[in-house]
Amino acid sequence: MVRRQNQPSLRIQPMRYAMSSSGIKVYKWPHKTDPTAESVADEMRRFGFACYDLQTVEPWFLRSRHSHDEDEIRGAVEGVITFHFDNGPVTIEAGDILVIPGGTPHEVRSHNGRPFSAYKGSTSGERKVTEHGDGHGSIEDLTKTSAS
Known about the structure:
Strand order of the largest sheet: 1-2-8-5-10-3
Shape: globular
Order of helices and strands: EEHEEEEEEEEEH
Strand content: 35-45%
Structural class: mainly beta
Number of strands: 11
Distance between the termini: 50 Å
Radius of gyration: 15 Å
CATH superfamily: Jelly Rolls
CATH topology: Jelly Rolls
Number of domains: 1
CATH class: Mainly Beta
Mean pLDDT: 85
Largest sheet: 6 strands, antiparallel
Number of helices: 2
């Protein structure tokens, strides 16, 4: 969709790509200002999702294969990360909003030496996860690792 520069719009349009048939959607940051934690959370709420966590992961992060029991949303605040789905990878960067349909298996990898921060949310505002792997990189795993 092409817009004239003099037409202000805060409406986010989904990026079109082959994976849209699976229900996965990426929304690119539409504003002419850099995203902040607050502005990303506001955009997520506009989609009807409740944020339940702002998570920062270390460089070279790996999250094992899992799915969410309900539709899930990620609002990237800082950095770059790739979600690996059965249909292929989707990379998001600061300002991008990623919507993942419930029950869609995926793993997550950051592929550079910088941390990545994103809000996580769901329609209920609760985290409900089904592990398909060993749970590496899950909140529980990260908590256990940092406590040792």
